[in-house]
């Protein structure tokens, strides 16, 4: 499967000025930008910058960024699921995982996350994929956002809905381990019925094992 990537951009107004939302971005351009020191949800900001540059260079990898001038202040990533997770077991070429979305604390509250998702779905090529994300409450910045688990879950669902992702049932053990955890996905209009059925089998792995 060929992975065509068509660049799109938008501009949003925030309390601190206008931000550019753009992508999919190339590794070279991403490397030329600064990376905000507040982007530390997954690892130190400079290491996360390097990780995103690597993802941007993958054939299927997509990075959409929010930037303030020459500084990246938010991003969303799309790539094939982790080989250690059940979602990779079908070796589906048309299944992408929304692996991470993060906005620096100083830029939250201005719909940056929603706009990152909206811009990422502007590319018509996304209609060729099932896009999924797994949400676990222990990854959420409850303290920084001053929200409880259910308030954050509602906020996260609303943000994912902006990209067309909706709740899907699954028997995946980690997701099932807490009611706030969830699987969300968007099935592109060009995805085949065979791929949809294969995704269903991955969602209900234990049901189809016997």
TrEMBL record:
Membrane-crossing segments per the record: none
Domain of life where this protein originates: Bacteria
Enzyme class of the recorded protein, top EC level: transferase
Keywords noted in UniProt: Acetoin catabolism, Acyltransferase, Transferase
Keyword Lyase carried by entry: no
Pathway linked to the protein: Ketone degradation; acetoin degradation
Function, as annotated: Part of the acuABC operon, which is possibly involved in the breakdown of acetoin and butanediol. Acts as an acetyltransferase inactivating acetyl-CoA synthetase AcsA via acetylation at a Lys residue.
Name of the featured protein: Acetoin utilization protein AcuA
